[in-house]
Known about the structure:
Elements: E1 8-9, H1 12-34, E2 39-45, H2 49-64, E3 68-74, H3 80-92, E4 98-101, H4 111-117, H5 129-137, H6 145-156, E5 165-169, H7 176-184, E6 193-197, H8 204-208, E7 213-216, E8 233-237, E9 241-244, E10 252-255, H9 260-263, E11 267-271, H10 277-294
Parallel strand pairs: 1-11, 2-3, 2-4, 5-6, 5-7, 7-8, 8-11
Antiparallel strand pairs: 9-10
Helix pairs in contact: 1-10, 2-10, 6-7, 6-10
Guanine (GUN) is lined by residues 100-103, 125, 145-146, 174.
Amino acid sequence: MSVLPTYQVLDGKRCGDALRADIAKGALEVRSKRGRAPHLAAVLVGSDGASRTYVEAKVKACEEVGFRSSLIVLPETITEDDLLHRVKQLNKDKELDGFIVQLPLPDHIDADKVTLAIAPEKDVDGFHPENIGRMVLGLPGFLPATPSGIVELLRHYHVETAGKHCVVIGRSHIVGTPMSILMSRNAYPGNCTVTLAHSRTMDLPALTREADILIAALGKPEFVTGAMVREGAVVVDVGIHRIADASRKSGFRLVGDVKFDEVAPKCSWIAPVPGGVGPMTITSLLLNTLKACTH
Ligand code: GUN
């Protein structure tokens, strides 16, 4: 007798594909109206393998929806001034709708200075303080890609959020902090009572067991165990880690911040790794780029 899974998967690939079909239509409209396709540039400083993989995935996704994309690879040794100069050139480039500077940057470069130098109307990562401020106030602007992708995933699967207790683990500027703001806003998805937990939180398992919606974004492989999750919870795994695995041809496997095998059977919905949040993040970047063409 086979046992049917009790949980349902928040499938980022399927959801992302559905949204990307609409984005491709939007790209055609932009093209016919102004004679050129939406154009995203990605700046990569140095040769970090993981960053290169992420940036190449973004560029490939652009091609698939009919956007133009440019990959700008700069040497690890570039000075902060030279990078800031390059950012200012991109701000002025009329052929470009939006651009991102992939993080992390080398230690000798102040990432905050670089983020501040990006023109808010081209900041499709949604990292500039003006866009963060707009998000907090509920004004139109660019939302950061990962939290926005999670919101779209919850919307696509009609997950109920109003009045629920949402616990976010991790307070990064890119994921945890904006996620806590989006889940508490007066909108759908949102209207949650939100707790933002982090490395100083006391008795984290007691807290996470209270969560109706648990968003794991702390960056520690398989940190969230079955004992930390209540029956029927919605769990969103934001982590992505390569773990050595000799049984795989690649020599590694991907895991998230959640111990999937233990946690999934307790969930009503779960966004797995891979195939959950990851594909949605890139889709949000494409959505922001399309938005950059039309405002
Ligand atoms: N590094 C990890 N995630 C991101 C992202 O969403 N944008 C940029 N620019 N860098 C990142």
